[in-house]
Amino acid sequence: xxxxxxxxxxxxxxxxxxxxxxxxxxxxxxxxxxxxxxxxxxxxxxxxxxxxxxxxxxxxxxxxxxxxxxxxxxxxxxxxxxxxxxxxxxxxxxxxxxxxxxxxxxxxxxxxxxxxxxxxxxxxxxxxxxxxxxxxxxxxxxxxxxxxxxxxxxxxxxxxxxxxxxxxxxxxxxxxxxxxxxxxxxxxxxxxxxxxxxxxxxxxxxxxxxxxxxxxxxxxxxxxxxxxxxxxxxxxxxxxxxxxxxxxxxxxxxxxxxxxxxxxxxxxxxxxxxxxxxxxxxxxxxxxxxxxxxxxxxxxxxxxxxxxxxxxxxxxxxxxxxxxxxxxxxxxxxxxxxxxxxxxxxxxxxxxxxxxxxxxxxxxxxxxxxxxxxxxxxxxxxxxxxxxxxxxxxxxxxxxxxxxxxxxxxxxxxxxxxxxxxxxxxxxxxxxxxxxxxxxxxxxxxxxxxxxxxxxxxxxxxxxxxxxxxxxxxxxxxxxxxxxxxxxxxxx
Length: 492
Description:
Strand content: 25-35%
Shape: globular
Helix content: 25-40%
Largest sheet: 7 strands, mixed
CATH class of the largest domain: Alpha Beta
Number of helices: 13
Structural class: alpha+beta
Number of domains: 3
């Protein structure tokens, strides 16, 4: 049986997943329909939690050095959301074209030996108990390939999802979205700024390289054909009507028009075929959640799928991808749909009422924490697994200085990380193979005495006090050990 995983789609989600599989020693091939590598720029924001995940693989600092750090987000309701209050090393939104993020992850794929084949289109697939057969077409004609698993990271119009017959539940937004990267004579403060009126929404996002992303939802275009010619004059006119100024827009380097959708796949897994990124969920770009959610999917799935391929995964592990990530996708759809509906209110009095309500609510710090957590991704958590769970189980792992480097630096080999000040716990863990890195150290006083961190930087298990060695072995075997050791522990 083939032990290879084939990923369909070489966007940020597909590349991140391929890198995770390769890091775990699993052979992975990425098939991409595009023959070239266009300068993709639709996504622009890298959120705090995404930067933490990239930090756990050594990619965050280089990306931050090349991009624009934005500490606040300004709303026309008179509210500024202070991102510096996010409890993270990356307490800001990073503004950078999707192409930069994509190239950063692709370089990692190259370092890990991932094979990327471009100009290869998937036209169908079938699966059986032992693997998946793919029908593809490239410049040389049709052929078939065999894989242990296939993951569709091929966008909102996913061929993989269609081949599975998985329903893509939701609706299409009626108002087209217009995008342009432009220079501004009046660049303003350099923060993300939005203007909202009954005419629509106009958003400016600074890239930090002299260009801004101009995003417009123009209610006058509700029934405009998608193939209508797009000129800069249309975008300038919309900004004047909605925001009161076009900021002296000039020199567009890229423009596009598209209709966004609010849809989610009913299932993320069908047998040996899985979905991630836009193939699993797509939504309005308000909130800059799309690419971030896709990278989160890839980090969650990568180590689980690698364990399934190697035969070291417990029976529940691969299904936990659906259980953990489907609710996250649904939450993102609720967030972006709510923001879009609130912004596109047609009635001026009702819009004013919405804005006053936002201003009043977000003046309270306890309430501000909620949207900060949603937009930044730091509030994403998963249901805890197992009995006697700790309050941190399923939550993002806190960073901490440890002997040999920060906790997130010590996750970079893709293994589980056990941090404990108990020599007995450390000894029990060291007898369970090389899937667990063990650090004997005392964590800060507000953290548990022992913490097991998953490869995707979430807490698997934690305890505040002493714990018997037998319980340690049972927990670690459940999460980390080869199947033969897990069976032996269960029997014993």
